[in-house]
From TrEMBL:
It comes from Mariprofundus ferrooxydans PV-1. GO terms for molecular function: DNA ligase (ATP) activity. Pfam families: DNA_ligase_OB_2. GO terms for biological process: DNA repair; DNA replication. CDD domains: Adenylation_kDNA_ligase_like, OBF_kDNA_ligase_like. This is DNA ligase. Keywords: DNA damage, DNA repair, DNA replication, Ligase, Signal. The keyword Ligase applies. Its EC number is 6.5.1.1. It is an enzyme of class 6 (ligase).
Length: 280
């Protein structure tokens, strides 16, 4: 019995290490790069999700309680992707996951869009082709590859970004076509959006005044490197009545940095789904 318990704890530890810290994270695209060297895809407005061959996890290693039918028939190899319900529906898919109910009927509207195969040898071009093969062979309507395509130059990339944003999308992802699989934040994977965004932890709620009396006027947040600032815009009336709780992680938009290194014109974008680790 003791040996069984020890083995279980070891497996849980390995899973937390693998899925909590070893996913690939994007850096920001800059205009000096040649987009012809990259495979490009739309940046989906969903929830990052890892499949280990048996279960679904958030990027920080929390088990996602999906219905059994949802992942039945998924390939046995590890996959990385997004749980997605469509453009502009992040809050809905986040609600499905945060609720933690495998009986939530909204799971029938969720897709798992795969964009990476952790640990697979070869370059990203080969991995993207294997993703298409795996998802096609599985024959599951809600298991789909993230479509990868190429652009010839910077003008073509800008035009594609404008098209995606005009249709309600977030932006683009660019992955070096010749890149091996890597983990952690890497310049081999880049995000290209019409604005900057980042995550921070909520440390205080600031009461509103005047029209906002009785609601939250702003939140004070702290970044991973310890910088603190307030965010007072981007909230709906519902957000202000039910603000992100202290300790939660939020995503905010901003327009570059000030001379003191703080985000310029920060505005609230969304609350990250419940995360037991509290890590950024």
């Amino acid at each position: 019995m003791k040996r069984t318990i020890l083995l279980l704890l070891t497996c849980l530890f390995i899973a937390a290490q693998t899925w909590g810290e070893e996913v690939v994270l994007a850096k920001k695209w800059d205009a000096g790069r040649d987009p012809a060297a990259y495979l490009v895809s739309e940046k989906l407005d969903g929830v990052r999700c890892l499949w280990d061959g048996h279960h679904l996890y958030t990027r920080n290693g929390n088990l996602i309680h999906a219905p059994h039918w949802f992942a039945a028939g998924f390939p046995s190899r590890a996959m990385d992707g997004e749980l997605w319900m469509g453009r502009g529906r992040f809050s809905e898919v986040a609600s499905v996951i945060s609720r933690g109910s495998a009986t939530d009927q909204r799971w029938h509207q969720v897709q798992y869009r795969v964009f990476e195969l952790p640990g697979m040898a070869g370059d990203f071009t080969a991995r993207s082709r294997e993703i298409v093969r795996l998802t096609t062979d599985a024959g599951i309507p809600w298991l789909l590859p993230v479509r990868q395509f190429r652009v010839k130059n910077a003008a073509g990339l800008r035009k594609k970004l404008e098209s995606v944003v005009a249709a309600g999308g977030e932006g683009l992802m660019l992955h070096r076509a010749d890149a091996p699989y890597v983990s952690g934040r890497s310049a081999l994977l880049l995000k290209y959006k019409p604005y900057d965004d980042a995550e921070a932890r909520v440390v205080a709620l600031i009461p509103g005044r005047g029209r906002l009396a009785g609601k939250t006027g702003a939140i004070e947040v702290e970044t991973m490197d310890g910088r603190r600032f307030r965010i007072g815009s981007g909230f709906s009336d519902s957000d202000r009545a039910n603000p992100p709780p202290i300790g939660s992680i939020i995503t905010y938009r901003f327009n570059g940095l000030t001379s003191s290194g703080l985000p310029r014109f920060p505005r609230f974008l969304r609350l990250r789904p419940a995360d037991k680790t509290g890590r950024l």
